[in-house]
Each structure stands twice: as C-alpha cells, then as structure tokens.
Write a structure and sequence with these properties.
190 residues; alpha/beta; six-stranded mixed β-sheet; 6 helices; 8 strands; 41% helix
Length: 190
Amino acid sequence: MLDCGPSGVWQSRSERLTVEVTELLLEEDIVFRLPAGGKKSALSKIAARLAKRADMDEAHIRAGLLDRERSSSTALGNGVAVPHAILDDLVHPVASFALLKEAVDFDAPDNTPVDLLLTLVWPRAAVREFLPTLASACRLLRRRVLRDMLRQARTPTEMFAILRFRLETVESEIGYHPEGIGTSRPSGEI
C-alpha cells in the first residue's frame, strides 16, 4: 500500500523496496493512441497529464523528463521507452502508460521507433524505492507477449486490465517476489 506519511512525504507502508508500477497507475493514467510528432511532443503531452496527478507545474515535470532524456535515451528497445525524472518537490510518485498513435524516434539502442511509454516521476525523498521499481517495470516490459497484448488493446480500460493481469501472471510464472525472497530473474527476452 502507498501512504503519505505525517511529514507529507510519500512512503511505502511496508519495508519492501519495490513499488509495482500497477500500484501507481490508475485507469485515468492510461493514454490510448496519443498523437505525438516526436519524442519531445510525446513527453510534453505526458507531462501535462502527470502534472495534474502530481499537483505540480507542467513545465517543471516536462523539464525533468527532457533533462533526463538529454543525458541518455530511456528507450529500452522493441518499441518501448521508460522516461523518468526524479524531482525534489514532488510529494508522491506518479506514472503514466501511453500507447502512441504512431511510433516515434527515441534514440533506441535497436533503432526501433517507440510506441509504448511508461513514464515515472518520482520524489527525491523516496529515491531508495525508485531503482528497484524502475528495474521491475523494465523486466515486465521486456516480455514480448505483454507488449503485443498492449498494442492490440482496443481501449484504455483494456490496456489497464492487461497491465494489472500480466504483472500478476508474470510474477507467478517466474517466481518473482518484490521482497527479493525466491526471486528468479530471467535473462533475455521472453
């Protein structure tokens, strides 16, 4: 469970480090067939949505995402990118998942244009949970079956259901436990 502690800073209620992406996403955070002319356009539109959820200035979130992207591409390959930013004045993490109307160049390592974007904006005060969560999200999105299902979805509701269902299924299939006990990590693409 997620909680905003007495200090007003978001924190995990348990001792585990990994926050699953599906814990952060609401159905309203799914963006279906987002029109974008390129990487900057996609990130700007996503930043506008995340700003409402985070109750922050859109320009601040956009700048954080674009600054991170300038340092190196967040594209993973296979048409997937995980743009992210860590911000000082953010109270709780927010996420968005988007299927672009048309794939755009994201400087991917395999040169494949990106059409699936999982965007994370994270509070610096909770940075300890960020990297395990990012790693978990990347493992999930490496699964070809999941990517194919998301691309074939016909509505945001369908995409949301696929993300929630596939996370639970993937965890049980590979014996993954967020606490790290009994964790097996597959190598390569599945």
